[in-house]
Amino acid sequence: MHDPSPDPLVKPESIQAVAGPSFPPLTPLEMALRFLKLGAIGFGGGVAVIALMEQECVQRRQCIETEEFLHGVGLGQILGPFAVNTAFFIGYRLFGLGGALLAQVAFLAPSVSLVIGLSWLYFSFNQIPSLQGALAGLAPVVIALILSAAWSMGRKSIKSTVAIALLVAAVVGSLVRLNPVWILAIAGLVGYLLKLGRLHSPKQSDSLMLTLPLSMQGLLHPLSTTLPATSTLVTVGLSTLAIVFFKVGLVFFGGGFVLIPVLHQQLVTQLGWLTAREFIDGVAISQLTPGPMAVLATFTGYRVAGIPGALVATVALFLPATLLMWGISHFYQQLRQVTAVKDFLAGVNPAVVGLILAAAIALAPGALHWDRPLSLVLGAIALLLLTRFKWHPAFVLAIGALTGTLASTWI
Question: Which pLDDT tens digit goes with each residue over 216-258?
Fold first, then answer.
């Protein structure tokens, strides 16, 4: 694929494991630029970002095989934000540890930079720039993007009656708010007991995409708003900041839903670094930016220690997951050859597609409104452009944002 000698990031054995001679060449710089773009347009949460990655890395660039991409998403669910972990996994498969860190930093750079800028505005002028119109237009497109990802992955993985049953069970379990980790664990156990990995071809049995249903409905209800709107600025050393967020990173299981109550307990109730009002506004700022909910750590770090604090808090929060993904990525090739692992992954795969569909169902009431037909029309057009005409998601997202800005009262 490449001559690795000029670039120290390149690991020939990693490249050969990913791509055959038919795959177009990709340099570390090109990879970084693509993840920088993904990080800049990754509105809509983890599921939507994963859909963007799948279109860019698997369908368009073909720099990684479908099953490896899906495994990366699944393994990235174990700890921390799975979109960031997937970027690390892809970078490692292409160019080793250096490529993994490069992909991760490039993916996070846009959202972290934007959060720092919005945090400065917020704490300087006590206001958040209004982007509600654009966000209203983006919401139906995000639903279409998630459905497009479910269709793309489901065609490759739903091949039997058992798979359909696991998909339906995952949808139902997710909608009644069962822990997705338990849903996937049970599905994997079924795959192991029924030896599903041996019923299909290697590509089908290796398929895996592990995601969480994302919905902001009810996220903020448990947060009290009775505390004062402002707080006394606390002085926190960078080492203390790093330790606190590293500990949070160690228990960062399950994506943004888990992170919200954990950070609220630590930052508002125990440490008093943020008031309840500031915490809620920090959640809102994290939703106004692309990238993961975890950039709430960037907001908090800026609050207590400025730009250095923002960077330290962000790095510390992601560090545990990064170390774990390093180990997983390094031994991935050996793990995927184990028969028991193949059976387990074959059971998880259809359940994952079910979780994707459940994510779209959970998000739809807040994005598609019968009394505002334009939202339905925009969602249908976006789905058609993504699935039938294969438009790049960036253009479809831009159409949604522009439509929302110009016609916010109709969406």
Answer: 333 333 333 333 334 445 567 899 999 999 988 886 654 554 4
The one-letter amino acid code at 224 reads S
**Phi and psi of 213, rounded to 5°?**
-65, 130
- Helix (H/G/I), strand (E/B), else coil: 200: coil
Give 191's Cβ-side CA count (13 Å radius): 36
Q: Rounded to an integer, what is the distance from CA 280 to the centroid of its chain?
A: 21
d(CA 315, CA 249): 10
Q: Closest by alpha carbon to 352, among 14, 88, 47, 91? A: 47
301: left (phi over 0), alpha (psi -120 to 50) or beta: alpha
Beta bridge partners of 369: 372
**C-alpha dihedral, 376 to 381 to 387 to 388, nearest 10°:** 140
Token pair recorded at residue 253: 């299981």
The residues spanned by each domain of the chain are 225-320
Q: Is 127 exposed, middle or buried (0-12, 13-18, 19+ CB in 10 A)?
A: exposed
Whole-prediction pTM value?
0.60
Residue (of 360, 382, 354) closest to 167 by Cα position: 354
Tokens of 10: 């390149």
**What would the pLDDT profile of 311-329 be if each residue is shown by its tens digit?**
999 999 999 999 999 998 9
Instruction: Give the whole-angstrom CA distance, residue 65 versus residue 217.
Output: 35
Report the residue count for the chain.
411
| Half-sphere CA count of 392, side-chain side, radius 13 A | 12
